[in-house]
Write a structure and sequence with these properties.
Elements: H1 2-8, H2 13-31, H3 60-67, H4 75-98, H5 104-133, E1 152-155, E2 166-170, E3 176-182, E4 208-215, E5 220-225
Parallel strand pairs: 3-5
Antiparallel strand pairs: 1-2, 1-4, 2-3, 4-5
Helix pairs in contact: 1-4, 2-4, 4-5
Keywords: Membrane, Transmembrane, Transmembrane helix
Protein name: DUF1449 domain-containing protein
């Protein structure tokens, strides 16, 4: 027992030992239902340049994990694997060094080698273990404002024009959101056959409208009147 404690508190095992205690505490909270691993980021496509539906790429810990080839599972799972394996390898290396009778300068160099070996070994082990785990964590596309395009909304302001308007729209999961909506600008004087909606009636509170475009620069949706009620049979 004394030898184990000496190895666990020796360099470099002690560096990963404290991190391992944090990992153990984290998973105890997960088992108790206090945390959800998916809430702390998901390392998606291993290609770090892949963009989401909104044009936002992976960043932060998820981006680093994906860049290391360990994407496809929650970041918390990957980090737990890395820390656990690195601690075990460094513990084994520290224990071996404890029995070696070498000069202090050589011992320091060997300890640094154990640290580097533990890091490389933990990455290799995680790379192997992540492959089968990906089947348990299918990659889900994050929600996007583009998901509202093609949906019917209900106008919530007194009017909707090219410069003002809000509407309520329901997402696929049943939740609702208030979004900024606009109509297309008024046609030029005299109209013209190229104008898509000549004489389009105004939208008022309670009316239904169809979302047909999202303007990313202005952060609003373009809508057109839409009658949700079925018409009479022909």
């Amino acid at each position: 027992m004394d030898d184990f404690l000496a190895a666990a508190l020796g360099f470099p095992a002690v560096l990963f030992g404290f991190a391992l205690l944090v990992v153990i505490g984290y998973w105890l909270l997960v088992l108790a239902g206090g945390l959800d691993p998916a809430d702390h980021g998901h390392a998606g496509d291993p290609d770090p340049g892949a963009d989401g539906a909104d044009g936002t790429g992976h960043g932060g810990p998820a981006g680093l994990v994906a860049a290391a080839g360990l994407g496809g599972v929650p970041v918390s799972v990957v980090l737990s694997l890395l820390i656990a394996v690195a601690w075990f390898l460094s513990l084994a290396g520290t224990a071996l060094l404890a029995d070696a009778d070498v000069p202090a300068p050589l011992w320091a160099a060997l300890s640094a080698g154990v640290l580097a070996g533990a890091l490389a070994g933990s990455w290799a082990a995680a790379w192997v273990l992540v492959r089968p785990l990906r089947h348990l964590f299918p990659d889900e596309r994050p929600p996007s404002r583009l998901d509202f395009v093609g949906r019917v909304c209900v106008i919530r302001t007194g009017r909707v024009g090219p410069d003002f308007g809000q509407a309520e729209v329901a997402a696929e999961d049943g939740s609702t959101a208030i979004v900024q909506v606009r109509t297309e600008p008024a046609p030029p004087p005299g109209g013209g056959p190229e104008w898509p909606h000549p004489g389009e009636p105004g939208l008022t509170a309670g009316a239904t409208a169809l979302i047909f475009h999202y303007d990313a620069d202005g952060e609003f949706f373009l809508v057109a009147p839409f009658d949700a009620a079925p018409g009479p049979a022909a």
